[in-house]
Amino acid sequence: MIRGETIVFIGIAAVITGMLLIFIGTAFLSSGKTEGSDNTKVSTGGVVLIGPIPIIFGNDKSMVSIAVLGAIIIMVISYILFYRGSL
Question: Would you tell me how many other CB atoms lie within 10 Å of the CB of residue 67?
Fold first, then answer.
């Protein structure tokens, strides 16, 4: 059985890791070549989970498919974590 302190530590570590990845990614993008680079394409996508219902959005077909895959993975992991005692 996983203790509560371990779950809290994992959550805090995930938030800190996410913030560091955002900072590092921003630093890499800002240090890149900005003059005369017209071939830059930005794609966005995301998932909002409201209970069991996912709301998926994006401006590119590939990003939407990645968001769908991510939503499925998140739902399977949450199902395993919440209902593993009744399996």
Answer: 20
> For the chain, what's the residue count?
87
- The secondary structure element, H or E, covering residue 45 is strand 45-50
The secondary element (H helix, E strand) that includes residue 47 is strand 45-50
Q: Where are the domains of the chain?
A: 1-35, 42-87
pLDDT per residue, tens digit, the chain (87 aa), is 778 888 899 999 999 999 999 999 888 877 766 565 667 778 888 888 887 788 888 898 988 999 899 888 888 888 888 887 665
The C-alpha atoms of residue 83 and residue 74 are separated, in whole angstroms, by 14
pTM for the whole structure: 0.53
Rounded-to-integer distance, Cα 40 and Cα 34, Å: 9
